[in-house]
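Researcher: Structure for this, please.
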Amino acid sequence: MSFSFLKRLFGAEPQEGGALPPIVEDASPEAPAVADAVVPDQPANFAGLQNFVRYMACSLVDHPDQVTLTTATKNDLTIIQIHCVKKDIGKLIGKSGKTITALRTLVSSAASRARQRVTVDVMDE
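Model: Predicted structure, token format:
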């Protein structure tokens, strides 16, 4: 499922078998929500980037119900901030920072296709 999500995020064409599967959203009321503070001039795929970051963060941590995202904008750089429990910060960062570096690389690459600058930061509550 994650490969099809990445294909859709990076703009891959659907295979001859049909369209890529839709993104499955958790309908439970306690599911972490993406902040509604999206900058109006952001392209439509920015919501997809936020959903990707939320999906990856919730997959890595022990307490996915405690994960929330906010966005901040400085000049032409948009920062997606991941807020989580202090115990889960190490899981998001990974050994020697490799996990967060990989996530930043994926988000930055996808955003550069729309000529945007986006990065990811991990914050504690």
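Researcher: Any notable elements?
Model: Residues 17-21, 23-29, 31-40 have pLDDT under 50 and may be disordered. The chain has one domain: 34-124.
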